[in-house]
Amino acid sequence: MSTMRYCELHELHNCADCAPREPRDSAPISDWGDWPVAAIIVHASGKAHLPGCTHITPADIRPPRYGWVLTPSPGAWRRLASSSPLRATQGNIARAAVSRCMDCDATQ
Predict the structure, then answer these.
(1) Could you tell me the sign of the dihedral formed by the alpha carbons of 19, 89, 47, 50, in that order?
(2) Mean pLDDT by 10-residue block, N- to C-terminus, for the chain (108 residues)?
(3) Residue 73 host element (H or E)
């Protein structure tokens, strides 16, 4: 378990955009090693996930089902909403996230 880190920039504990993340129990750490900690993965359903999410495995993340943003802008995770979708920049770039995975969000 990591200690809570405070982000001065966004004034949040364990800021999703700035705090380093530890992979969760879904896949071996080495499987998520190629994913930047700030990446946001966009599922066909419009749900956004973070690297290490227990709902997905790295080997499954490929177009056309998924799109992703390796370097999202600061605050992108917190802004995710139907009124502020995040468009994938790689993989299936037609994908747009409009909501956050509750399990991923709980870690932030």
Answers:
(1) negative
(2) 52 55 44 87 95 89 94 93 96 96 88
(3) none
